[in-house]
């Protein structure tokens, strides 16, 4: 039954993909509505870029496939500070995300334990959390640039901020939701605080903590693209913005596709880790 459902879902996905490609191909035809609905000012801008050698037409699926293959054949080339392969740009972005994400985990998980185990700490920190949590991570970027004076580290700081809250809140919730019977047994056996945290609370709260970590990695990957568009220099976000300045729509679509694939891979990795934790439970 499950295999039949998987097969049907796969066939439906292929049909949806084929319909999307067909609609895209139709929309790029000269007689389609896309060409006729272009803003006149943008059309003039594109025409001016075309006169200098840039592509003016929206790329077809075949064009994007050829562009993607060209990037995948040599993803790590370096032809100057502003001309580096998409593999290098993705590596810069992934590096920033991983560093900011791990720093956030190092802060959020212990603090979440403290909040979840101590009602006093929860009441004391809750006002600060409720004020800071809704702030867009990108709102911190100007302050980070002013104080840190390094665009790469500032981007890591933004990733740290956006990754912090889902892990902190989920960890606190998971710790606070541990069954009282288990805690009572630990108290009866006179288990120490550290042993209780690692042997009782952590295993019970691990699935909820992993859910927070999975949410955080998705947000972090989303935010890094926007952050790199702001600070420039390196990264897949900078690559997208630079290709927009060159009016290279094919490269932009290729980068968007790669961003989605990397984001899916990160999410699947965390989902797999969460299932392993749940299975051990």
Q: What number of domains? A: 2
Round the mean pLDDT to the nearest integer and report it.
85
Structural class: mainly alpha
The top-level CATH class of the largest domain is Mainly Alpha
Silhouette: globular
Q: Could you give the order of the helices and strands? A: HHHHHHHHHHHH
Range of helix content: over 70%
How many strands, what sense, and barrel or not for the largest sheet?
none
- For the termini, the CA-CA separation is 27 Å
Subcellular location: Cell inner membrane; Cell membrane
GO molecular function, one term: nitrate transmembrane transporter activity
Protein name: Nitrate ABC transporter, permease protein
Transmembrane segments: 7-27, 98-116, 154-176, 219-241, 247-270
Protein model, in words:
- The chain is an all-alpha fold and 281 residues long.
- The chain has two domains: 2-59; 86-280, Orthogonal Bundle (MetI-like fold), CATH 1.10.3720.
- The chain is built from twelve helices and no strands.
- The longest helix has 39 residues, at 193-231.
- The radius of gyration is 24 Å and the shape is globular.
- Residues 49-56 have low confidence and may be disordered.
- Residues 90-270 form the ABC transmembrane type-1 domain.
- Belongs to the binding-protein-dependent transport system permease family.
- It comes from Methylopila capsulata.
- This is Nitrate ABC transporter, permease protein.
